[in-house]
Design brief:
With 256 residues, the protein is mostly helical. The protein has 13 helices and no strands. It is elongated and about 60 Å long.
Length: 256
């Protein structure tokens, strides 16, 4: 156990290096000042900052699984500490930074989340999971231009990406772009028809565009999937689904 936060693991070489690893992780692979004039690639910086003997993928996987267990239990403090160690032990694995970035987002650490997800994209530029996660972080942070750009990049790689369509519906609604919001909301409901969230987002877009009939029909579909939408107090959970406070207030007008 590291500082009371790490998972219980069998004795091995990793405790000797953990302090070094965390320091290196904080440095984000930057070369020493004296070498700053060299045009280091991402791989070159990584090789310099993380010597091969410090990279331990199997140990990292154990930390990553334990970190996910902590996150599932709602213990974000231990999850963050453990997943940071996992990323440092296996710095060439973009999945480690995606998981860490999303956990940082859940903990409200948005700048750190953005940095981690960009780190994943440096290694895997075409990672749809990384782009989806980064787009959501930008959306919740209110950076709508970046959210739209990031999700459109994800759609270019995976057109049937229901996460991107759903979040683009919300982002375009906040930008006052009703046609785009409706388009992406419709596509999200087609791709994930049993999830009430896209139906609520589509109802929001229709209502903003002045189409009350389709707004009611879409909201009724969400209500058929989840009876909780018959109560205004139930709408508060939509904040966790990417809706802004103003959007949640607007949806309240559709509650029967």
């Amino acid at each position: 156990m590291i500082g009371g936060f790490g998972p219980q693991l069998q004795p091995g070489p990793e405790p000797v290096y953990l302090a070094i690893l965390l320091t290196l992780a904080a440095c984000q692979g930057a070369p020493p000042q004296a070498l700053g004039s060299i045009p280091w690639s991402v791989a070159g910086r990584q090789a310099l900052a993380y010597p091969a003997f410090l990279v331990q993928p199997q140990t990292a996987d154990r930390y990553r699984q334990q970190g996910l267990n902590y996150r599932q239990r709602g213990d974000l403090e231990r999850a963050l500490a453990t997943l940071t160690i996992a990323a440092a032990l296996d710095p060439g694995n973009p999945d480690g930074y995606i998981i860490l970035g999303w956990t940082q987002h859940l903990a409200g650490q948005r700048p750190a989340a953005i940095a981690s997800l960009h780190r994943a994209l440096d290694q895997a530029p075409d990672s749809v999971p990384a782009l989806n996660a980064l787009g959501i972080v930008y959306l919740v942070a209110g950076d709508l231009t970046a959210a739209v750009s990031t999700h459109n990049r994800a759609l270019a790689l995976q057109p049937d990406n229901e996460i991107a369509h759903y979040n683009l519906c919300l982002a375009h609604h906040r930008q006052g772009q009703w046609d785009q919001a409706i388009h992406h909301g419709q596509r999200a409901t087609q791709l994930e028809p049993t999830n009430p969230h896209p139906w609520v987002a589509l109802a929001l877009a229709y209502n903003a565009a002045g189409d009350g009939t389709r707004a009611r029909a879409s909201y009724d579909q969400a209500l058929a999937l989840d009876g909780g939408y018959g109560q205004r107090s139930y709408l508060d959970h939509l904040e966790q689904a990417g809706f802004s406070g103003e959007q949640i207030g607007a949806i309240g007008a559709l509650v029967p």
